[in-house]
Amino acid sequence: MTARAARTARAARTARAARTARTARTAAGAAVAAALAACSPDLGTRSQALDAYCTATVNTAGGPVVVDVETDYLPRVVNCENGAADQAALEAQAVAARSYLYYRLDRTGDIGDGQQDQVYTCGRTPGPQHAQAVAATAGLVLRYPPATAATQVAAFYVAGAFPTADCTGGASDPTNTERYVTYNEGRSGTDVIQTTLGFVSPSNHANRGCMSQNGADCLSEQGRTFEQILRYYYGEDIVLERAVGPCVPALPSGDAGLDAGDGDLDDLGGGCCQGGGDAPAAGVAALLVLVAVAGARLRPLGARRRRARRPRRRRRG
Would you say 186 and 133 are in contact if contact means Cβ atoms under 8 Å apart? Predict the structure, then answer.
């Protein structure tokens, strides 16, 4: 074989290898995109991280005060609003209270102290269980819709009626608030029932329903996790997103997504909220590794040779 023929043959092999590599990378990229798309019903996609509110102005009876959100405001609200509840209900309360706080701060820059917004002062000191509920859900808020997570949800909640055995509201409703509660388990999109506490319209993404505090306590006692409780009232496609900021603890090294510290949120730890996506986060991570390996193995022959060559020493003139 002449030198020219040898060069031609090598060039042809290199071109074929390059086409094969591009094809493999394209197919693998499509598989990754499909896997990530399967997560979108819960996690949603955002162009940038959601900034956490680390402090909040609370309009108390004694005047406005600026307080720390994660270590002061939320433990007090959880204690005042539903402090005797079971632990998962306390965690659901923490997410709902944080979500409503973000909704108010986005619109007015402050929040009231009382039943018109959320009760911050009630004469009771929060206990370790209330602080734990906040810490276990650090930074987590409810947003909608799944495709963009662009709207901060006003996570309404009320006392609701005393629950029956299946945790729905019973006949005893001393606060007359059961009429606002929405039961949205298994519902999504426009099928979600909105509460009359907010403007009822399919275009109002901030209104995704209302949680019963009595019902949440019942669900927790039956073994439901806080995420399951939230989806029970706000819909299957509600987005749980973790805000990012100095007041929200950093995720453990190697954790690519949300991790609320709850056993039911295994998929959150890898970037997908449980309940909508069919592709487990671990599977997506493994797929990304396979793509990287495939890209390395299918690198064009010429590129592999160039990397394998030892650099030539330049002759000194």
Answer: no
Per the CB < 8 A criterion, the answer to whether 239 and 144 are in contact is yes
Q: Which residue type sits at 120?
A: Y
Per-residue pLDDT tens listing for the chain (317 residues): 555 555 445 545 544 544 444 444 334 344 433 433 333 334 344 557 899 999 999 999 999 999 999 999 999 999 999 999 999 999 999 999 999 999 999 999 999 999 999 999 999 999 999 999 999 999 999 999 999 999 999 999 999 999 999 999 999 999 999 999 999 999 999 999 999 999 999 999 999 999 999 999 999 999 999 999 999 999 999 999 999 999 998 766 544 334 333 334 433 332 333 333 333 333 333 333 333 333 333 333 333 333 333 333 333 33
Would you call 33 exposed, middle or buried from its count of C-beta atoms within 10 A (0-12, 13-18, 19+)? Answer: exposed
71/134 Cα distance (integer angstroms): 8
Name the nearest CA neighbour of 182 among 151, 148, 203, 153.
Answer: 153
141: left (phi over 0), alpha (psi -120 to 50) or beta: beta
Task: Specify the amino acid at residue 222.
Answer: Q
Q: Say if residues 264 and 87 touch (Cβ distance below 8 Å).
A: no
Helices (H), 108-136: 128-136
Strands of 140-144's sheet in order across: 151-152, 140-144, 239-242
